[in-house]
Every structure is written in C-alpha cells, then in structure tokens.
Design brief:
Structural class: alpha/beta
Oligomer: single chain
Number of strands: 12
Mean pLDDT: 95
Distance between the termini: 49 Å
Helix content: 25-40%
Order of helices and strands: EHEHEEHEHEHEHEHHEHEEHE
Largest sheet: 5 strands, parallel
Low-confidence stretches: none
Shape: globular
Number of domains: 3
CATH class of the largest domain: Alpha Beta
Number of helices: 10
CATH topology of the largest domain: Cobalt-precorrin-4 Transmethylase, domain 1
C-alpha cells in the first residue's frame, strides 16, 4: 500500500459491553411484555442515540419517582440506584426490573460487606455520576469520595487501620492506579477490593485505544458527552500525544480536523452502538479513506443473564 494512502483502523474491542447489552435488552423485553409507557430511572445507558430510540418506542426516562404513576413498570438504569431509591420504589408498588450492570452490583455488595465488617469506605469516582450516587447510597454511613490524587492528602478518616476503598467501574485505569497508590502510601493498612472494580470492558477498550493512538494521527471516539467511559477513552488517546476528539455521531465531525490526517483511528464507548461507527466509516470512505483489517486485541465473550421474568 502506498504511503500516501489514507487509512482507517477500528479499535477492537469497541462499543457495547455485556452490561449495556443487557440493560437495553431488559428495556426492550419489558416493552414487549407490558407495552408502553415503561419508566426508566435515569438514562438506561449514557448514549443519546439509544435513549432517543427508546423514547420513540414509549420509554419515559425520569429522575424522580414522583414522576412514575402508581403500579407502573419501573426499570433501574445500568448505573444502579441507592438503597433509599429501591426502598421508595418498593413502597410505591411499582413493577420493578433491575438493569444495573452486574459488575456495578458486585461493587455494591463489596461496599455492604466491608461496611458490615466495620470499615470506613473511600470511593474513587466522579461526583454527581449516577453510578457513584448509587454506590455511595448502599449504606447509611457516609462514604468518602476521592476524584483526584491531590484530594487524598486532605482525607479526614475516622481510623486509618479500618479503611477500605472501591471505585467507579468506568474510570481511567491509569488515573485510578495513581489514586490507589496515593491512598496506599498515606494509609498503608487500607483494604483493596477482592478484584479490581474497573470493569473488563473499560480496561479492554482503554488498552485498545492506547494501541490505536500509537499508530494513528487522529483518534475519533464515538460516544455521548455524559458517558464516563467514552470521555476516558478520548483522554487516554490524548495522553499518548495524538489529536483525539469525541463525537456523538458523524454529523458532529469537524472535517477540518481531517486535514493532513492520513491514518485515522476510531473507537466507541461501551454505550455507543456499532451503527454509529459504521456511519462514520462510510463517510470517511467517501472521502477516500481505506478501512484496514484489525484483529481483536482482547476477545470478549462475556454475557449477563436477564431477570428471570423476562427470559424467553
């Protein structure tokens, strides 16, 4: 292939993870079983295309349970909810399906276990993110939130000998490692999770985008602005010294960015559907780019079962 050929490489793996797949499937099957409207607390996954598509089918996304009529079908988003939300929903008699990602549920159980053993818990995560709110709401005692390495120095803990940490599942692997190192340096007795909280899909997509960034001179991440893992993919690529941008869909692409870029890498956040990637590829092909083959860096064959009431 001539050196002046313009090429595209797709990150592999990219796009939907098992937790997102399961959450969307739960909403679709609940719609098929009960008809519309179906109410979902918070966006089921953080992607505008997915959310708009479900709204068109009769899904109503809400934040406050007061917006849900008595006896309606309510689904918890993939990000999970606090115990207080669960208790309130049960009191109101909604028909409930839980689309919380099983890997988030694992962190919830970890928090409950550590708390029952008398540990004060530090959560590494982004303030205001629904997953963080749901995880920190698993226990009555207040958890400590850490977003940056610098905040570790100012943590006021009750007992440094009885301290544990958990983390949001969609964080940057590298940044989280830095925060964990700072926590362990300041609190040598701090207890780590049994297994890393950052999910397999987040890890795999970040590893794939690193390889992509090293081979390309522009990386495009397909993902919505409120998607934590999509934002982390863009940051991960940018830290490798390559121009990296995030777009919701091909219509948002600033074509001026393509000037002089002969090797474009494309990836997608774990909540971004493959159709959006293929639309971007088709657009670039029309501009003369050639798609290269790219074997998966990491095979993903994980799937999560649906709630038994929705299994066929």
């Amino acid at each position: 292939m001539k050196s002046n050929t313009k090429t595209i490489t797709l990150a592999n793996p990219r796009g939907f993870c098992a937790g997102v797949d399961r959450a969307i499937n739960i909403v679709e099957k609940a719609l098929a079983k009960h008809g519309s409207p179906i109410f979902v607390r918070h966006e089921v996954v953080h992607n505008r295309f997915v959310v708009d598509n479900l709204k068109a089918k009769g899904v109503v996304f809400i934040e406050d349970l007061d917006e849900v009529p008595q006896g309606a079908v309510l689904i918890y988003s993939a990000h999970g909810v606090s115990l207080s939300v669960q208790e309130e929903a049960q009191k109101r008699g909604f028909q409930i399906y839980d689309a919380t990602c099983p890997l988030v549920t694992k962190v919830h159980k970890e928090v409950q276990r550590l708390h029952s053993q008398g540990y004060q818990i530090v959560m590494i995560g982004h303030k205001g993110h629904p997953e963080v709110a749901g995880t920190m709401g698993q226990i009555a005692d207040e958890m400590l939130l850490v977003e940056t390495v610098n905040q570790v120095a100012n943590l006021a803990v009750k007992n440094a000998e009885k301290l544990a940490f958990v983390s949001q599942t969609t964080l940057s692997v590298d940044e989280t490692a830095d925060i964990v190192a700072a926590l362990k340096q300041r609190f040598p007795a701090i207890v780590s999770p049994n297994k890393d909280d950052i999910c397999y899909a987040t890890q795999n997509r970040q590893d794939a985008v690193k390889a992509l960034a090293d081979a390309c001179n522009l990386v495009i991440v397909v993902g919505s602005p409120n998607s934590s893992n999509s934002n982390r993919l863009r940051e991960t690529a940018a830290k490798r010294g390559v121009l990296a941008v995030m777009i919701d869909n091909v219509a948002e692409l600033d074509t001026a960015l393509l000037s002089g870029k002969n090797h474009i890498g494309i990836t997608a956040g774990a909540s971004a559907p493959e159709i959006l990637v293929q639309e971007l590829v088709a657009f670039l092909k029309d501009l003369g780019y050639v798609l290269l083959d790219n074997k998966p860096q990491q095979q993903e064959n994980i799937s999560f079962v649906l709630p038994k009431e929705l299994r066929e």
